[in-house]
Amino acid sequence: MSKGQFDKALNELTHRRREVLIKFLAGHRDEAIAQSLNICKATVRQHIKVICEEFGLENELPDEHRSKRADLIALFKKYKPELVVDKTLIEITTTQKSIPEQNFVGRERAIAHLNHLESQGAKVILIHAKGGVGKTTLARNYLQQKFDDYLEFPIAKETENITSIESLLEERLRQLNEEPGREFGVSLERLRQKLQEKRIGILIDNLEPALDKNGKFIKLHRRYVELLRVLTDPSLQSLTLITSRDRLHESDVYVPYYLLEGLSIDAWQQYFNSRSIQTNSSALNAIHNAYGGNAKAMEIIAGAIQVDYAGNVEQYWHMNQQDLLVEADLRDLVTSQLNRLEQHHSSAFKILCRIGCYRYQDIATVPIDGLFSLLWDVPESQHRRVVNSLRDRSLVEFQNGEYWLHPVIREEAISRLRASEDWETANRKAAEFWTKSVNQIVTIKEALQAFEAYYHYLAIYDFEAACSVIVYRRKSKWKWHNLDGGECLCNSLRRLGLSQKLILAGTQIVGNVLSGINLAIIYINLAHSYWITDNLSESLKEYNKAATLLLECLHTNTSSKNDLTFNRFYMRSLVGEGICKIDLLEIEESLDIFLKLLEISHQKDSYNFQIEAYYALAFIYSQTSFKEKAQDFANKSYNSSKDDLDELSEWAIGHRYIFLGLTYKNLGDIQTSFQMYNQAIIFADNNHYAQIKTRALTGLAELYRKQQEFKTAFSYHSKAIELLRQIGAKCDLAEAYYQLGLTYQKMAELEKSKENIDKAIRLFREIEAPKQVEKVRRAKDDRVCNDSIKISPFRT
Question: What is the pTM of this model?
Answer without folding.
Answer: 0.70
